[in-house]
């Protein structure tokens, strides 16, 4: 197959023209470099670049005061801050200790101590997270029971505000979520470590928590009674009798059950509730269990309902 020479030349002609153009551009650029004006322009651009680079430098960061601290020094200072009730300082030092020296006895103890520091610094979520982390990383640690105890304490005191610490309030009227969590935490502590040094205090707190949860159910039943939801009130009280035996809420629950069943016309169930009450509380209910369970509407309530202001 023959290839015409002219066609080959025509094929390479555009490439030849492109190479000539590039060569001309390069020649022109080198010629400009030789000129004094262009050299001055290059110097000016370099000077501006250096100046801008110098302006963009960030100032030196302050030196880390803990850069040469040992793990023992971190732990000692953190413990001193904790004992002096400088809890925010203590948490900061414990965190730095664990970050810089993640292995060894001081780091392990810091994981436990920081949970208490968070608790005292009124950071319940951080305290529980620290306790859970210690339990997960050190399930066989000789003091792991303390992590369970801290978790229970945090939930036990969660929701108690500044005013509540000085003015007595009825904690059973608050949201029972944290109370139930605390109850489960202390129960787990007793189940896993029945001979723990924190077991006795946990048992006492469980008694208080059971009373609290039972009385919360009484408040709900009371609400239902005042809204004439008698069946719902009776069911709530039945749960109290079933789940919270030997609490101060039982006599109140029996009285509400009797009233609710009589309102519903269930005489037999009402009589049963009265019989159980008299058999166990012939001399009356314990002092704190006394509660007004008379749900007959007053004259004002009758007028209020007649006008329909609750609708």
- Outline, from the CA principal axes? elongated
The residue-averaged pLDDT reads 78
Number of helices: 13
**Estimated structural class:** mainly alpha
Tell me the total number of β-strands: 0
User: Low-confidence parts, pLDDT < 50 over ≥5 residues?
Assistant: 1-9, 25-30, 53-58, 162-168
Share of helix, binned: 55-70%
- SSE string, helices as H and strands as E: HHHHHHHHHHHHH
Main beta sheet: none
Q: Distance between the terminal alpha carbons, to the nearest Å? A: 104 Å
Strand content: under 5%
Measured on Cα atoms, how large is the radius of gyration?
40 Å
Report on this structure.
- With 311 residues, the chain is mostly helical.
- The protein contains 13 helices and no strands.
- Helix 6 runs antiparallel to helix 7 (144-157).
- The longest helix has 30 residues, at 5-34.
- The protein is elongated, with a radius of gyration of 40 Å.
- Mean pLDDT is 78; it is low at 1-9, 25-30, 53-58 and 162-168.
Please outline the helices and strands:
Elements: H1 5-34, H2 36-55, H3 71-83, H4 87-100, H5 105-120, H6 124-137, H7 144-157, H8 177-192, H9 199-226, H10 230-243, H11 249-263, H12 267-280, H13 299-307
Helix pairs in contact: 3-4, 3-5, 4-5, 5-6, 5-7, 6-7, 7-8, 8-9, 9-10, 9-11, 10-11, 11-12
Name the features.
single chain; 311 residues; mainly alpha; 13 helices; elongated; disordered N terminus
């Amino acid at each position: 197959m023959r290839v015409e020479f002219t066609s080959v030349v025509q094929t390479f002609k555009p490439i030849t023209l492109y190479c000539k153009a590039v060569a001309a551009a390069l020649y022109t650029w080198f010629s400009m470099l030789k000129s004094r004006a262009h050299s001055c322009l290059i110097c000016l651009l370099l000077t501006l670049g250096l100046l801008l680079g110098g302006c963009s430098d960030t100032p030196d960061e302050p030196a880390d005061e803990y850069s040469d601290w040992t793990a023992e020094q971190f732990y000692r200072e953190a413990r001193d801050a904790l004992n002096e009730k400088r809890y925010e300082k203590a948490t900061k030092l414990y965190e730095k200790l664990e970050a810089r020296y993640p292995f060894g006895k001081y780091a392990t103890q810091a994981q436990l101590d920081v949970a208490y520091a968070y608790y005292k610094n009124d950071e319940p979520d951080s305290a529980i997270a620290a306790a859970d982390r210690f339990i997960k990383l050190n399930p066989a640690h000789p003091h792991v029971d303390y992590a369970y105890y801290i978790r229970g304490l945090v939930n036990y005191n969660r929701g108690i505000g500044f005013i509540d610490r000085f003015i007595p309030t009825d904690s059973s009227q608050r949201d029972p979520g944290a109370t139930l969590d605390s109850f489960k935490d202390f129960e787990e502590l007793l189940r896993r470590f029945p001979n723990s040094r924190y077991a006795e205090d946990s048992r006492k707190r469980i008694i208080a928590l059971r009373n609290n949860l039972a009385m919360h159910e009484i408040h709900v039943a009371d609400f239902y009674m005042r809204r004439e939801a008698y069946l719902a009130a009776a069911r709530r009280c039945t749960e109290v009798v079933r789940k919270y035996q030997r609490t101060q809420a039982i006599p109140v629950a029996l009285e509400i059950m009797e009233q609710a069943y009589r309102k519903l016309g269930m005489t037999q169930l009402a009589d049963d509730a009265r019989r159980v009450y008299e058999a166990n509380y012939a001399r009356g209910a314990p002092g704190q269990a006394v509660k007004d369970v008379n749900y007959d509407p007053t004259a004002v309530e009758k007028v209020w309902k007649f006008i329909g202001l609750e609708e």
